[in-house]
């Protein structure tokens, strides 16, 4: 079942496109979106949340485009999980969660806190009185309050230390809510996403079953990301920091960094089917070892 679908979506700010012609289905089993800083992950998440209108292409919610969909139903069904820093520092935890609920449903607030592994008495505290991991759990509780079918998680654990990250991932893995998970960290998608998409400079360069992408990357960029992160916790050197990738202006956008580029790469490769549910945009997809 597909919950949300991007169909040939181009997204940008002002007149500048930053995500180019992306098609992507959010299906069961978790979908991962991987790429370094500036690759367009959050921009795509905003479009899936209906917060950014495509310059071209469509976002489909069931059999309707977001323009025509019942937005009340959509806003309940698709919930963002932002970084915990987005919690209002002046508001008590309980009120932050209750905001999303019918008036006065304090019993439900306690239930939600328990569901995310927190002591319900934390409802009376303010964000600064909680640890980073606790705050991230609160953000998840708030997203779960309205009973969504899909969570859109943008780097939900990247600000946390490794052991806390692992516990939050356990929590997410145990929820029966579908998810689109944005991350730098391949260990995270491996665990939580059956399917993954690798984004480079606003383009999907490789998609497919996560375990196959990791076991045998078909795009040199996927391989670079994989080889750079052997374990949970670290962002790859390629992805670390806020420096943005400079794509080649013509031809394959990855060619300035690609270790196996050939003259043919001056022509941009199309994203094509590679069998086994995979797609890859590389002239030398068979040669990546
Ligand atoms: N509000 C905005 N106005 C103008 N340009 C923006 C805005 N938000 C993002 N961009 C630009 O769009 C491109 C994609 O940014 P985006 O935030 O989607 O990347 P990202 O993959 O989420 O990166 P990160 O890993 O750093 O969060 C970048 O070039 C960025 O500078
Ligand atoms: S098309 Fe060429 S430059 Fe681009 S990733 Fe493949 S081999 Fe590298
Ligand atoms: Mg982002």
What does this 3D model show about the protein?
- There is one protein chain.
- It is globular and about 65 Å long.
- The protein has 289 residues and is α/β, with parallel strands linked by helices.
- The protein is built from 9 helices and 12 strands.
- The chain has a domain at 2-83 and 158-164 and 177-287: Rossmann fold, CATH 3.40.50.300.
- α4 packs across α5.
- β1 and β2 form a beta hairpin.
- Bound molecules: adenosine-5'-triphosphate (ATP), iron/sulfur cluster and magnesium ion.
- Keywords: ATP-binding, Nucleotide-binding, Transport.
Rg result: 20 Å
Q: Tell me the CATH superfamily of one domain.
A: P-loop containing nucleotide triphosphate hydrolases
What is bound: which ligands?
adenosine-5'-triphosphate, iron/sulfur cluster, magnesium ion
How would you describe the oligomerization state of the chains in this entry? single chain
Shape: globular
What percentage of amino acids are in beta strands? 15-25%
Helix content: 25-40%
CATH topology of one domain: Rossmann fold
pLDDT < 50 runs, ≥5 residues: 236-243
What CATH architecture of one domain do you see? 3-Layer(aba) Sandwich
Instruction: Report the mean per-residue pLDDT as an integer.
Output: 90
How many helical elements? 9
The profile of the biggest β sheet is:
8 strands, mixed
CATH class identity of one domain: Alpha Beta
What is the SS-derived class? Answer: alpha/beta
Going across the biggest sheet, name each strand in turn: 6-7-8-3-9-10-12-11
What is the distance, rounded to the nearest whole angstrom, between the alpha carbons of the first and last residues? 34 Å
How many beta-strand elements?
12
Q: SSE order, as H and E? A: EEEHEEHEHHHEHEHEEHHEE
